[in-house]
Amino acid sequence: EPEVTQTPSHQVTQMGQEVILRCVPISNHLYFYWYRQILGQKVEFLVSFYNNEISEKSEIFDDQFSVERPDGSNFTLKIRSTKLEDSAMYFCASSRQGGNQPQHFGDGTRLSIL
Amino acid sequence: AQSVTQLGSHVSVSEGALVLLRCNYSSSVPPYLFWYVQYPNQGLQLLLKYTSAATLVKGINGFEAEFKKSETSFHLTKPSAHMSDAAEYFCAVSGGGSNYKLTFGKGTLLTVNP
Predict the structure, then answer these.
(1) How far, in Å, CA of B24 to CA of A80, rounded?
(2) Which of A28, A113, B7, B93 has its CA 20 to 30 A from that of A101?
(3) Is residue A47's pLDDT more than 70?
């Protein structure tokens, strides 16, 4: 069964550094998402992406965050200048369509900011 | 705006006993509802979804959930727990229309005792 893959599984970065989290969504899916889960807290929506543009973003997704689909297969999340509070598990998801179509999640990237 | 409340952050059952994980939602539009399961060090796996076709929804691994509009609930059940069911379970709501983001509950950790 096709799945969403995320790399790396664990990323350790110094505060203030840029980090790029990578995702390969399921190939025939059209909608892409990033979520994060801070340790001990609920999974939170960051951003959705469709037709090569952001369709919705949360308050968390400020100017330090950006997303890109550079080559038709990868979907990346960039954090420009990381803060300690960015430490979390970041999940990529994709769905064939929006609305009632289920989102399929990757195994996540654990981001640790030192 | 949507929200999800999962009653009980931790539920413990004996192997073979009934599993009942509670989820109540709030949505200003007819909701799409989902249950996801997360095994240790893995991503979120879809268990089942409600999209208004039928109020009783069957999912994978013997789980099912019933949508009750009058109670704004979508509780997850399984008649007989298995050791392999031990995991964290998340209820999520999507608002439909152009609002595709998932809003998650805080999760319920299920432990199964032999």
Answers:
(1) 37
(2) B7
(3) yes
